[in-house]
Amino acid sequence: MIGILTGKITFNNGIGIGSVIAMLASWERNKSIRWVILHAVLGWLYVFYFIRTRNGQNNTLK
Predict the structure, then answer these.
(1) Is residue 60 part of a domain?
(2) What pLDDT, on the 0 to 100 scale, is given for residue 3?
(3) What angle do CA 2, 40, 44 make, to 5 degrees?
(4) pTM value?
(5) Considering its fold, how many domains does the chain have in total?
């Protein structure tokens, strides 16, 4: 069951949505399982870093 009572979205095994997004972003950029594991631990910090440093026309934070 997703943690509805606590107001926090987590999966049964304890992986948060920030970690999942970080893992996907890390794999897209690096294609390395070592980086994926590290970025999963960092979670939202890596997600914000990825958004800040990505290349493209949609980057509004630069």
Answers:
(1) no
(2) 46
(3) 75
(4) 0.58
(5) 1
